[in-house]
């Protein structure tokens, strides 16, 4: 309320000043002067006490910062306005007074947002719609809220699920298993009814006497309001909790229904929609059904130049040679795209060299870094390369990682960190976390420290799973504090089988591997096909790819791909072939305005999401189009098959140790599992490409070679465009390049031209 007083005074002063502007009244002018001085003094008072109040209530956030600085600036303007009263020029005073009134109003608006919420203004507008009205047709519990009689068991279940969902999203962080402020927990019926150190919080049938209802109903800014941090409960959420208490704080009998979506474990083979016209492949028929449901029209397929570049980069990670591009464009065969995909997939070494990066990220395999000095980390490079080269069936691939040979043991051994570590990072727990994340699309990291806030997984589940990898049973540590309890030994999904508790670690791992790769473990194979789809299409059918309990945009497509993958002998190359030869893969790419749009709940699939070249793809593209980025000595030959030198076309970036250049382009350090890379450009990348020594050195070295090989500007530009972009330059591009190069190219001008082409979207993006 403090801000209203100076606003009122200064506004009145402004109005009187505008009247005096016409009438030239000495009395009015004196009144304006007095009001201005009082208004400025009260504004200073408001700013001072506002700061004291914010410190007392520990206010923070963007809204508070805007409010604070607007107050400072406006106070300064007000002081300038009073100083200008001494000037004979009233026009300056009037301008400053006008800006000051606007500034005080602006600061006051943001102050009201702090105390009353961001929607304090729009919520009272006649046109505003209450949240319950907006959601009345979408939420099954809305029907329950209108029921004044007794609830049937299903209605009790629906209401209880919604109540627990509200509490989980808003209250568990402070009143849950990991943290119980005021000795109050809200994550079970017994705990809620028990209350906290200040007594009971729920009085069944009496919301007016229930402390929890009083606290959540208090205005934002009240010291007793709950939640104390984050977003306030919506009007509808408060209404649901009041209704629940009014009905007796009902809790259903029997097994408690999960408040989180849990994807089915078992496989499912959906019935394929009928073929229509040129939509005959199963992937396309399923996508067509999705398009029809969402009123999305098919777009024409991309042209041959875009397709060959896209499929080359996706299958072997390299740019297509100019002669291959021209031959493909001239090829008149109707099945030439299918034949190209087969040809590339049969290039076993090129395929393995490209997909090494994908699996290195996922399996936390690198060539240096934490743990190598102390012998606490072991690579699986030779095993991984050989597995990809021979296209090892995925079920055997998984089995050899979980029940490992000596060459493949590095994955589940994890990193033995130096010194004291958190109990959730001991190697057995790392194995449990990594296996569940990579192969099951399941995040156990939260549940390795305490019961998860985002799923039904409990701390005991994580330790029981970790015990499969442990030589001795682990004591459960909650938030790194020993509990004195010893976990059992159990697979995450008991439906798959029972682990022999007293067996050796080696036998337990064999059992785990056998159980996980069974055809009835639909989750394993859904997770695998979703990862490959995301790698090729820029976005998974389920996102994020490590949260497979999330809703897929097409459940039928995901299930069909997984069942077809199993039916085809767990063949990764056949899976990739199925995707890249589909009409769906050949749709034009689309872009998103914000990275978060890809994860949005209302995401609509329209085709491939446009992607930036990975660090390795960009490095290899520069190497093939202009000059090798890395010397032969940079390749980690000692970790690779003995004859790898004869198989590498040049020193590919996937086989050199990470460096600042590749880090800036998104290559992770692989000390933790990384199952996706961001495709967004960032400042670090821009700085590295403009000022980084690695790229600059490559351009300098290459310019010498190109100067000697291409003495004329036109021949150099034509060759560069063909190698880098797979086409000849347009006339306007040729003219622009001539200006850069001059009549006779020199080394500096060649560097400038290559740098410019390397930064254009056509080179950096997969369209």
UniProtKB/TrEMBL annotation:
Q: Does the keyword Transmembrane helix apply?
A: yes
**Every DUF1553 domain range:** 511-740
- Source species taxonomy: Bacteria, Pseudomonadati, Bacteroidota, Cytophagia, Cytophagales
**Species:** Dyadobacter psychrophilus
Record protein name field: Uncharacterized membrane protein
Q: Which residues cross the membrane?
A: 6-22, 34-54, 66-85, 92-112
Q: What GO annotations for molecular function exist for this entry?
A: electron transfer activity; heme binding
Q: Which keywords accompany this UniProt record?
A: Membrane, Transmembrane, Transmembrane helix
The residue ranges of the DUF1549 domain are 282-472
Keyword Glycoprotein recorded: no
Residues in domain Cytochrome C Planctomycete-type?
Answer: 171-227
